[in-house]
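Bug #2210: token dump truncated for Phosphomannomutase/phosphoglucomutase?
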Amino acid sequence: MSADLSQLVKAYDVRGVVPDQWDESLAELFGAAFVQVTGASAIVTGHDMRPSSPGLSAAFARGAAARGVDVTEIGLCSTDQLYYASGAFGLPGAMFTASHNPAKYNGIKMCRAGAAPVGQDTGLAEIRQLVESWLDSGAPEVSGPTGTITKRDTLEDYAAHLRGLVDLTSIRPLKVVVDAGNGMGGHTVPTVFAGLPLTLVPMYFELDGTFPNHEANPLDPANIVDLQARVREEGADLGIAFDGDADRCFVVDENGDPVPPSAITALVAARELARNGGTGVIIHNLITSWSVPEVVKENGGTPVRTRVGHSFIKAEMAKSGAIFGGEHSAHYYFKDFWNADTGMLAALHVLAALGGQDGPLSALVAQYDRYVGSGEINSTVDDQGARLAAIRAAYEGQDDLTLDELDGLTVTSADWWFNVRPSNTEPLLRLNTEARDEATMGKVRDEVLGIIRG
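Reproduced locally. Full output below:
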């Protein structure tokens, strides 16, 4: 097919509309290029519940096997289940999913052995170049026998591994509503939660890649309305929502109120530090709450601030030997999970923390949720650089402010901070701000938006 790979190959993965932007013939080329770049003799693949996923995954496997590489297909799985297989088997892996994107999309998340990320700087650019060079003629044939393609179920092993990382033996009975959004959480949750003292109220567990109930993107408040209502209706202790490929989890308390991912990051950081003797490095991206580094220090740890994006988090995790990392977008990374992200393990930590004491979740997380945040606000702009320069000009030179450009522009005072980052893929600026009180947060937010939107 004629394909524009500049629109298909993103910073961290492959993602586009099927069949308009890519199809099984292109997936086969990606399989061949993936094994050439990684030098693998064997790989593992998995896929989500989207209608196009089985065919794309099978084509990728054919492309790899044609180059003499043995392929283990674990079939239907969550993205973190694929990372588990990559780590447990010591093999590079490829997961076919478009995460929370609408049904017409699909993609590939690739990793090296041990779930090490493959992004633009770690192999994805080379994979793209190879595929582009093969678009007209196909992948060149190689000598030697074709690799084998075998199927293997890893769900039970994945679940057992996760449960071995969190002590859930003495938690009190809990009632939990889980909204799987017709995504892969409906496949993994029943097995992972099996045997725990939980009354599980399932919502949208039917695997359906057309997402008939709502988008599988809990970061959008509209998509957790059903969960919030059900938690209140059931009198549940908490609610958990997973995104389409179930690598992110979002939590609501017993009142149906969302728990900010920064508060979950702080809670899990405190637990992981306790599990590691009260010491260790915790990674957080620069738009998580002030609460995160504060809690880390209070619990004996060392916070390390990094850019937004899983490739940066994973690289810093490996460099620093960090035991845990968290992002504002509800990605949670664990050293004991090959530095990869798993929302399911974060969910188990929340269940363990809540079930290990008698109070409600709202009271438990209050100690980790200390400030007022705006959430991420996107603005379409004509010139990202000019708008950023205007913001810098408005705030630089003031003695009580610090400015840094680790990722976009961050301006910090004693009582508030904000960060403005350009999108890599769209003409957007993303604003996050936080303050010690609602009035200050609103004032800063509106000032910066006034500059962004001119």
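Output looks complete on our side. The mean pLDDT is 96. Marking as cannot-reproduce; reopen if the truncation happens again.
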